[in-house]
Design brief:
Chain lengths: 135, 391
């Protein structure tokens, strides 16, 4: 297949927003409104949507990048990025072979995965206490 | 050192903590698990709570008339870390291909697992079961039928993995020389007969061993999508119950929509834009493959959303029609490159007049597709080189 054929095959190759991109953007807009008015967060699993070639890239391109970008190292890397639309986050989980295992758009103040967890804080306290006792 | 009993009684939460896995990692695991089980992300907290308390179930995997493609698919699941965690969370006590033991030691592992977990273990089957001559397929001198009935008697549930176990698959295709049956049909035929052999000799309470009472989950596909296999296992591990099933015993979370309804090329179908050959302009522009034999309209599976090879694509995205491999008798369903039915009306024009009647038109075309498929099965039509060289 020639390069031009591949280009034609990319449904979102043009600037027109078709099929899933526009409805998803509207869903995100409604979720932002719900977050503002009712303090309710929403998560959209991009894997559950039948995206055409190019649609996910186009969606992410439109959402862009904002002020916050974080990387976790927990069972493989995870990238957490706030998009240019504050409150709209892109959370991408990778496995230890750096393959994407899930990709969510979270409409929230801060994704839960970024927060320190109480169980981990408790273990950290114990570890530090033991370490200080040893000294 | 922790003894086996304690190890068996440990919850998944205990197991993960003992491996030094943080709560944050556990939440990531739950997010990926929800995605894998096709559950909405809002279920993540419930999954986390359930997985914390989940116990390690015993799994016995029996392979009969099969090609090992289902096991290949499973072991190449791309979410390596997550799969490892899940497999650390189940006790895979018997699997011909994966276990280290062989011969009598292997068979002993099966009977021991049955004895220790009677009534509680999961039985996974891949491959169909021959009934014409028991000698067609035996394991350790035991016919597939006897081994299946004996093992099924003590199972909590049976999972038929792959189209061969689910519907008979290729061994069951015309002329079915081995008299191959699916797990469901075997249970219908033999499920009420008394089970002799190891079961009655080693299990003291065999009263609950009626095979016909066992819930069956079918996970068809040739092979099934890896994360669909693990998704079903994970559902049982997480919630201790079987997922909601359709009329063929398939989990609705993965088999609830047709390939056609979830296909990104569906809008082309609705506009009447079809590829007529594999190298015409329509094919290059990614138009609908219906006229090239796509079985998407009559096939229920998760390929269009879950996709294959680390979410890279699925057959239609690669330019090939769906073969319908997760449906009964797909092998006898007519040529792979023969259209189910060619609409005799211009769909695009018709939709102008009958937007409200679109659902009815869809039903009518669907019925025509099914009729064509049934007719092809009864005629046993074959794919010829002419099909491949369509004009």
């Amino acid at each position: 297949m020639s390069g031009s054929s591949i280009e034609q095959f990319n449904i979102q190759g043009s600037n027109d927003l078709t099929w899933n991109v526009m409805p998803l953007l509207h869903q995100i807009k409604h979720a932002l409104q719900n977050l503002l008015e009712n303090n309710v967060s929403e998560i959209i699993d991009l894997r559950s949507i039948p995206l055409a070639p190019g649609e996910e890239d186009r969606l992410l391109e439109i959402l862009g990048e904002g002020e916050v970008s974080a990387q976790l190292n927990a069972l493989g890397l995870s990238d957490v990025t706030e998009t240019q639309y504050t409150g709209v986050w892109l959370v991408t989980h990778h496995n230890d072979e750096n393959e994407i295992i899930s990709r969510h758009i979270e409409i929230t103040y801060i994704p839960e995965i970024l927060l320190s967890q109480k169980e981990d804080i408790s273990l950290a306290y114990d570890r530090l206490a033991i370490s200080l006792d040893e000294k | 050192m922790i003894d086996n009993k304690n190890l068996k009684d440990k919850t998944l939460g205990d197991a993960l903590r003992s491996q030094g896995i943080s709560r944050r990692s556990f939440l990531k695991f739950c997010a990926a698990t929800a995605s894998m089980m096709a559950l909405p992300p809002s279920m993540i907290p419930a999954i986390a709570e359930a997985l914390e308390k989940a116990k390690k179930p015993s799994v016995i995997w029996l392979s009969f008339q099969e090609c090992t493609g289902c096991t290949e698919s499973l072991t190449r699941a791309h979410t390596a870390t997550i799969e490892n965690l899940i497999f650390d969370s189940i006790s895979l006590d018997y699997h011909h291909t994966l276990q280290a033991a062989s011969g009598e030691a292997a068979e002993e592992a099966r009977t021991e697992a049955m004895k220790e977990n009677w009534g509680e273990y999961l039985l996974v089957v891949d491959g169909s079961i021959p009934t014409k001559d028991m000698g067609y397929s035996t394991i350790a001198g035991m016919s597939n039928l006897d081994m299946f009935l004996e093992t099924a008697a003590g199972a909590a549930a049976i999972i038929s993995v792959g189209t061969c176990a689910a519907f008979g698959g290729i061994p069951h295709a015309y002329p079915n020389p081995t008299g191959a049956y699916s797990v469901y049909d075997i249970i219908k035929k033999y499920g009420d007969q008394k089970v002799d052999g190891v079961t009655s000799a080693t299990i003291t309470n065999a009263s609950n061993g009626r095979v016909s009472d066992k819930p069956i989950i079918t996970v068809p596909g040739c092979p099934p999508i890896p994360v669909v296999i693990t998704g079903v296992l994970t559902h049982y591990l997480t919630f201790g119950s079987i997922p909601e099933l359709d009329h063929l015993g398939r989990p609705k979370a993965f088999y609830g929509s047709s390939i056609h309804d979830r296909c990104y090329r569906r809008p082309f179908y609705d506009k009447g834009l079809f590829a007529e050959t594999f190298d015409d302009e329509g094919a290059k522009k990614g138009w609908c493959l219906y006229k090239l034999g796509c079985k998407g309209p009559t096939t229920y599976n998760a390929c269009a959303t879950t996709k294959w090879n680390n979410g890279t694509s699925f057959p239609i995205e690669s330019g090939h029609p769906c073969l319908g491999c997760s449906e009964p008798d797909f092998w006898d369903g007519g040529g792979f490159y023969k259209a189910l039915s060619i609409p005799t009306i211009d769909i695009a024009s018709a939709s102008i007049y009958a937007a409200a009647g679109a659902a009815a038109a869809g039903v009518a075309i669907g019925a025509l597709n099914k009729k064509k498929k049934q007719s092809a099965i009864s005629d046993h039509s074959k794919t010829t080189i002419d099909d491949l060289e369509k004009q």
